[in-house]
Design a protein that fits this description.
Layout lengths: L24 E14 L2 E8 L2 E8 L4 H9 L5 E10 L14 E12 L16 H6 L1 H4 L3 H23 L3 E2 L17 E3 L7 E3 L5 H9 L4 E9 L11 E10 L3 H18 L10 E3 H8 L12 E2 L6 H6 L9 E5 L7 H7 L6 E2 L2 E6 L2 H7 L1 H11 L6 E7 L16 H20 L1 H4 L13 E5 L4 E4 L4 E4 L9 H5 L2 H4 L8 E6 L2 E8 L4 H10 L4 H14 L7 E7 H9 L29 H6 L9
Parallel strand pairs: 3-5, 6-9, 11-17
Antiparallel strand pairs: 1-2, 1-4, 2-3, 4-5, 7-8, 9-10, 10-22, 12-13, 13-16, 14-15, 15-16, 17-20, 18-19, 20-21, 21-22
Helix pairs in contact: 4-6, 4-18, 7-12, 10-11, 16-17
Length: 612
Amino acid sequence: MLDFLGTLQRTHTCGELRAGDAGKDVVLMGWVNRRRDHGNLIFLDLRDRSGVTQIVLDKDISPEGHAKAEQVRPEYVVAAKGTLRRRDTSALNPKMPTGEVELVANELSVLNDSRVPPFSPAEDAIANEEVRLQYRYLDLRRPEMQANFALRHRVALAIRNYLSAQGFLEIETPFMTRSTPEGARDYLVPSRVHPAHFYALPQSPQLFKQILMISGFDRYFQIVRCFRDEDLRADRQPEFTQIDLEMTFPQQETIFAVVEGFLKAAFHEAGVDLVGGFPRMSFDEAIRLYGIDKPDMRLPAMTDVRSVISPQTAGTLKTTAALPVIAVRIPNVGELSRKERDDLRLLYPQKVATQKIRALDDFKRLEKSFPEEMAKVRTATGAQEGDLLVLVVADGETVPEQRVVGKRLPPRDRELFEAAGQVRLALAQQFASRHRAFEKKGTADDYKFLWVTDFPMFEWDEDGKTWIAAHHPFTSPDEDDLKAGRLTSDPGAVRALAYDIVLNGTELGSGSIRIHQRAVQSEIFRALGMTDEEAKERFGFFLEALTYGTPPHGGIALGLDRIAMILAGAPSLREVIAFPKTAKAIDLMVDAPTPVSDTQMRELHIRPVLKG
């Protein structure tokens, strides 16, 4: 027979009692973490969110409580009433914050029992993630998970408090809205009232937050749930939380200062004090130096060393002086075994887009063949003894003329830099235990922030043979490019007033200065191949809103889940989202998604169409 709570009132949590509380009458409630039976003495480690306290059931003091403790097993829910005492010197446990005290119980109530769980929440790690997700309510009891969510709460609260103090208003936007292009598939919600019509769950509150600026709210923010139907990975979930903000009359610097401010407040809650402003880098510079628009700067940048490679040597390397020769340096790798060198070749891309890419990894052989030029490569890269050097080149038998407008990289050059960036990341992961750049030392130096700016306005979609928005179609183009007429003459050269905030190779957030004039917005829609009629059908409400005195405005959205993941040192977003989906977008705990009844389908005027 299980006990009822009755009038029993918890006086303390299991993690708060210390030596100074000795002698107090205490009532604790929680889960049995561990049980140890020493005959006349039974010890229960009682756990709740705050920690663990040892409970002593002495048969001489409480025969009834001792008898109940004999039946108790891990994960039973119990209440213990008694007197707190100091432990004997020989029994102190310095590994527990409560390790100087124990509760001598004169009463034990068993509030609920438990089946034998598939894993113990007292364990430090559970290997099978599917089992963890299926029994998420047990997994979330683990102290590591509880700490992750306590950290996430403090981070979100710090951000909310900071933005409120800066004059931002928190305003909610709809979850059911119309489908708009945001870069991924929408989750659609069929309307029962309007047959064959659908709402879309928001990929972001983009248009609504712009309309709030048109409405005169000046500064808006929201810690908001968003939804994207896309393939999943470690840092991506179909439903996620972002810190969304927008403001009127901003320069990019204004937005950067606000974001850096709330990130410093958030990181302070995690015990990390960030100092100074974050560095800036253009998109083109990021591609040249790191081969990616979200560079991890904990390792050295790449170096284009074509200027020190003679045409004759380039010919021997089967490339040409007209194309980059990119040196990738990974520090402190040391000598490689033959097997390690053979394994490396599996990491290198063989073909990227229009070019065949080769990684020349035997640098010592190159030094023997071209000693003077390779010495210059070492100097240019700053390589030290023990550093790994790899040269990345492209076959250069035919190099078509590449027209470049403004500061944009030629397409073949960009392909090569991006391929070298993949080589760099693969080497960085392969030798992480040697260069140790990814190891956390508990200081602000562990976190390398970067603003990436001047993104391309458009990207070419080879399948659709058309230009698409690289950010989203409400991003303002660079004024100089707009005045020069490049929207029509050379869309690929147009720069956007867009920016990303990057941390240790992870994109935390993305934002832009928005278009605030209807004529410019219509011109962008036309550049994307949209007719005026199509634009009116899809965005008529927004185009009309732009005609009623829209102020210049801009904003950004950062992933709260990603910030929490990085601060917690977690390997994936699933460690900081309470009820995540698997890589196949399945909730194993509730077994979703599932079919629904024919009645529900008829009410929504839809029916499934299955492939095959």
